Amino acid sequence: MITNDFNTDCGKYTIVSHGNGWAYTITCNTTGDDLWFQDDAAHQLQTDTNNFEDTVTIDQYFEFLHG
């Protein structure tokens, strides 16, 4: 399997795309915590965050992690 990765750093988070959007890893640059999304969840994440521009939505995912 070939995986194409790209990184984007939107300040608080670093986002890595795997397999041209098949999956995403989001790392909080403050805490080092990671979240993994794949398949339909990865697509939904990209849609919900307006292509990762809406970091408030990403904040909410991390809040659930520490709930």
Looking at this protein, list some descriptive labels.
2 helices, 31% strand, 67 residues, globular, alpha+beta, four-stranded antiparallel β-sheet, 4 strands
The percentage of residues in β strands lies in: 25-35%
Query: What radius of gyration results from the CA coordinates?
Result: 11 Å
Please give the alpha-carbon distance between the first and last residues. 35 Å
Order of helices and strands: EEEEHH
The tally of beta strands, per DSSP, is 4
Descriptive notes:
There is one protein chain. The chain has 67 residues and is of the alpha+beta class. It has two helices and four strands, in the order E-E-E-E-H-H. The protein has helices spanning 40-48, 55-66; strands at 6-9, 13-18, 23-28, 34-38. The protein has a four-stranded antiparallel sheet with strand order 1-2-3-4, with helices on one face. A hairpin with a 5-residue loop joins strand 3 and strand 4. The mean pLDDT is 84.
Blueprint of the fold:
Blueprint: E1 6-9, E2 13-18, E3 23-28, E4 34-38, H1 40-48, H2 55-66
Antiparallel strand pairs: 1-2, 2-3, 3-4
